[in-house]
Design a protein that fits this description.
Elements: E1 4-7, E2 10-13, E3 23-25, H1 37-44, E4 54-61, E5 68-75, E6 81-82, E7 94-103, H2 104-107, H3 111-121, H4 138-152, H5 158-162, H6 180-187, E8 199-208, H7 211-217, E9 223-230, H8 233-250, E10 266-267, H9 271-306, E11 310-317, E12 319-328, E13 331-340, E14 343-344, E15 363-366, E16 374-378, E17 388-389, H10 399-405, H11 408-417, E18 421-423, H12 427-432, H13 441-450, E19 455-467
Parallel strand pairs: 3-4, 18-19
Antiparallel strand pairs: 1-2, 2-3, 4-5, 5-13, 6-10, 7-9, 7-11, 8-9, 8-19, 12-13, 14-17, 15-16, 16-19
Helix pairs in contact: 3-9, 4-9, 6-8, 8-9
The structure holds one DNA strand of 6 nucleotides.
Pfam families: RtcB
Keywords: GTP-binding, Ligase, Manganese, Metal-binding, Nucleotide-binding, RNA repair
GO molecular function: GTP binding; metal ion binding; RNA ligase (ATP) activity; RNA ligase (GTP) activity
DNA sequence: ATGTTC
């Protein structure tokens, strides 16, 4: 794939064949790799109604149809499509960061007790376990009311909603567009991590790049934090499966052709498109509630051991499509913005930000790979790509490759030698997430900042990890 | 990511 260097951090793929717009890849000469993701960037550029460009963030890698680390916006009033592959199977997968009233130096003497407690109270792995057993009509309410329903039922409080994207619940969710099978899968999983790259980490603020913004976010140097990375479990997965199948069946009848069946799509303003968006919104609410109750459970463990609880910094999703208003070629347009492995990064002054964050911009939470740093970033005024930035380190090797070449016991020893207390789930799961299978998160974040997509606020390092 | 192959 031919990349044309526009600036040190911005590269272009010129339109060819059925591409309607160029590809724009935010990367660097050092970071750029091609595992097939750039071909996918070009494929996405062929989607009906796509505007401006098919974007890739610095952590881009190959995914189902769309690349992970991709951003694509379509013009809803001009037949623009929505594609489940542009959101991903783990709908509204995201990150929740909570800050403890505890210093790094306080942690070590209680580390084992805290990690044992977090391990005990955090269901994880495929299938089993959840911290919240929902009452009879609970799932339907959760799908429409998200974290607000959890608060109503006694989990956490108003601040948890104020510091969650969309106040804890996205509008326009319709449980009727969620299949019985999807609901069945989701019913017993509210409050569980899942597996793969999902985790709960205890971290310490290792560096602060912007004191004023960090203070507004509720963070300071050497503070202990808890970061939770998880999504919508089997429910979101089943919704994606159901709607991809439906769109794959009806796409040809609409006269839509795509270069890859995994780009199955429908006009956002069509029955199939609206049905997916309504089901996706339900999964987004599920994911918010999932992270919410896991955060409350973690806070109870910390309070039990230390007498100090947790305050929410922010909760953000990096797998979602949203209907947003943006200026394109001088016109205000209604766009369906797909972010798959990409994080919304609202600039200072944006009306959707809570009042206490409006001056500094949206907190952007970037989980590193296991045992490496994580970041807190902020949105910037000049942000390109519809106010989006990266979402993590980004894989360089497949799960299979990582598992084949990693000794899980050695990896665990290495982590513990670096002072990270490990509470794993399975040896294979640990091996698949070896940091050597990922890009360097410090490099990814530096490129994202260099490309003008966001700015650094704080760097966090792991003290303990509960692995999904 | 995922009751890791409906």
């Amino acid at each position: 794939m031919q990349l044309v260097e526009e600036t040190p951090y911005r590269f272009r793929i010129d339109p060819r064949g059925p591409m309607r717009v160029p590809g724009v890849v935010f990367t660097s000469r050092a970071l750029a790799t091609d595992d097939g993701a750039l071909e996918q960037v070009a494929n996405v550029a062929t989607l009906p109604g796509i505007v401006r460009a098919s974007y890739a963030m610095p952590d881009v890698h190959w995914g189902y149809g769309f690349p992970i680390g991709g951003v694509a916006a379509t013009d809803v009033r001009a037949g623009g499509v929505v594609s489940p592959g542009g959101v991903g199977f783990d709908i509204s997968c995201g990150v929740r960061l909570l800050a403890a009233d505890l210093e790094r130096s306080d942690f070590h003497r209680v580390a084992e007790r805290i990690m044992d407690g977090l391990s005990r109270e955090t269901p994880r792995g495929a299938g089993r376990g959840a911290v919240w057993q929902l009452p009879g009509d609970g799932l339907l309410r959760l799908l429409t009311e998200g974290a607000r329903y959890a608060v109503e039922r006694g989990w956490g409080g108003q601040r948890d909603l104020d510091r969650c994207e969309d106040g804890g619940a996205v509008p326009d969710a319709d449980p009727d567009r969620v299949s019985t099978r999807a609901r069945d899968r989701g019913l017993g999983q509210v409050g569980s991590l899942g597996s793969g790259n999902h985790f709960l980490e205890v971290q310490a603020v290792d560096a602060v790049y912007d004191e004023r913004t960090a203070t507004a976010f509720g963070l300071h140097l050497d503070q202990v934090c808890v970061m939770i990375h998880c999504g919508s479990r089997g429910l979101g997965h089943q919704i994606c499966t159901d709607h991809v199948r439906r769109m794959d069946e009806t796409m040809a009848d609409r006269g839509i052709t795509v270069p890859d069946r995994q780009l199955a799509c429908a006009p956002a303003d069509s029955p199939d498109g609206r049905a997916y968006l309504a089901a996706m919104a339900a999964a987004a609410n599920y994911a918010r509630a999932n992270r919410h109750v896991l955060g409350v459970a973690a806070g109870e463990v910390l309070r039990e051991v230390t007498g100090r609880g947790l305050d929410l910094v922010y909760d953000t999703s990096h797998n979602l499509a949203r209907i947003e208003q943006h200026d394109v070629d001088g016109d205000r347009r209604t766009l369906c913005v797909h972010r798959k492995g990409a994080t919304r990064a609202l600039p200072p002054g944006h009306p959707e930000l809570p009042p206490d964050l409006r001056e500094v911009g949206q907190p952007v939470l970037i989980p590193g790979s296991m045992g490496t740093a994580s970041y807190v970033l902020a949105g910037v005024p000049e942000g390109d790509a519809f106010h989006s930035t990266c979402h993590g380190a980004g894989r360089t090797r497949s799960r299979h490759q990582a598992a084949r070449t990693t000794d899980a016991r050695q990896l665990r020893r290495d982590l513990e030698r670096h002072g990270v207390v490990v509470r794993g789930n399975s040896a294979r799961g640990l091996a698949e997430e070896a940091p050597t299978a990922y890009k360097d998160v410090d490099a990814v974040v530096s490129v994202a900042e260099g490309a003008g997509l966001c700015r650094k606020v704080a760097r966090l390092v792991p003290l303990g990890v509960v692995k999904g």
